[in-house]
Amino acid sequence: MDKNVLRELARKYALQNAVFFGGRANAGAVIGKIIAENPGAKSSITEIQLVAREETEKINKLSSEEQRKTLSLIDPSMLEKKEKEQRKGLPELVNAVRGSVVTRFPPEPNGYPHLGHGKAAIIDEGYARMYDGKFILRFDDTNPVKEREEYYEAIQNGLEWLGIKPDKIKNTSDDMEKIYRYAEKLIDDDNVYVCFCKIEEMRKNRAEGRECDCRSADAKKTREKWKLMFSRFVPNEAVLRLKTNMQNVNTAVRDPTLFRIIEGSHPIQGKKYRVWPTYDFSVSIEDHIDGVTHSMRTKEYELRDELYFLLIKLLDLNKPELIEFSRLEMENAPLSKRKINPLIEQKLVSGWDDPRLPTLAGLRRRGILPEAIKEFILGLGVAKSEAVVQIEALESVNRKIIDPIANRYYFVVDPIRVEIKGAPDKITTDALLHPDKKKIKKYELDGNNLYVYIAAEDAKTLRKDDNVRLMHLFNIKITKIGEKYIEADYAGNDKTAKKLHWVPANSTRAKLHVFGPLFLDEEFNKNSLTVKEGFVEPYAADIKEGERVQFERMGYAILEDKKTMKFNMIHR
Ligand code: ATP
Ligand code: MG
Prior knowledge:
Distance between the termini: 39 Å
Structural class: alpha/beta
CATH architecture of the largest domain: Beta Barrel
Bound molecules: adenosine-5'-triphosphate, magnesium ion
């Protein structure tokens, strides 16, 4: 590659990277961009690295303002994150016509949304936007016993937080009358029957490929019994089943149940209905009613594709493209309401928004940014292949975004008082609030009555006569080690000595919640939450609720409650 061309390219990408990531470009990202644009250039990788690093360094010296301005002169289109780029990982759809693609996300409001739902919704919405189409949030609320109003709201809040904006929000339960009409069509065409078999019997027949006697009723009889499902029959007494082939190799399509009786008050419909469709029946019809062109779901539904298309054929419905992607699975994190629910019921976690949970509400409290989730999910793509991902992968995306903006502070856990004698009368000390920002934290200390706090863990390593350096301050020589305090003498300046973190006497009490994996070897990890108490330096009073900061040597944290100065640890 021509040297000048390479330099231009590096400069351009460094500027863009800086503009997108809080004023600080990452050389690695710049190198990646150059190589992506010039796949043949790998041979000169060392040169690319060198130039990219040089340019990145130069660009990082500019103010955000200058970066933006310079980029706008070179290529203003680069100031905006390209739509395509945001959705990298989403391959083109088959039979997609710009302007007429319709996708939907169909959660059941029986729990709070988790990262897996985030994946589905991001992909569903991503495709609608990619083709200037329409995205529908459809509550698949056809089980009155499981749905709760709280969950409808939680799902909407979760999507809103992710920046996902449905063009339409609807409930399957609002279409019940229409769904019944389709059932009646199946009855008229003699494609269904009311079955009175006990569950075990039904299961056995299905396994053995045997038809039961209920199946022989004609359309007229079936219609009468169907009516009774709305009045006389009790739950589990009768279901409506589709007539298929009981010897079908795919057992999911051996006379599947389409309707069952469920009694209970529905959060939206109240007691209006007691005959409810199964997922398989309602999804085919709802996708038709909603004009869905591309229907997406996770791979575990694969065996039910046949039924989806069979119902479409029997009822003469629109036939969308069906796209399947892998279910998101994360090591030691339960990405399923079925697994999260028991943790809540047994009170092993504080609720659906416990920061240890991979629910959207939990991740939010944990300090993970919605942008990080989007970038992470789109980075995984829509591959069908299963892969268990590590939470660290999401954390690393999050870290990359917050590092340029998170101010640095000192937090001293289990503080031990260090009394210092012989220091100069007045000492001023300063440290940078952020390595890239010019703002400084400045403290004035009174040498005549001087004490500071260090962490118990650091104090443990000290011995009498040790000479150590208090960061950004001066050296001290340890003269006495008491149980709850330490005494030391001022010992001048020797920057080579071992460094200790400290906070001044007028520091603020604070709490830091630190989270570990919820499970270890499939068992609930009883030590998944640790609460550290200590002092944060006085400048921490400037931290706003919800702000993300970095505690030196510990990691990134978010201030959850300013009144009690309670922080949640985000990640290292
Ligand atoms: P859960 O086990 O959490 O109840 P579910 O599939 O029953 O999962 P739904 O509310 O029915 O939950 O899911 C709505 C949509 O979200 C479905 O299309 C489903 O495929 C998708 N989804 C759910 N969990 C995941 C996951 N872990 N990864 C990707 N997509 C998911
Ligand atoms: Mg479900």
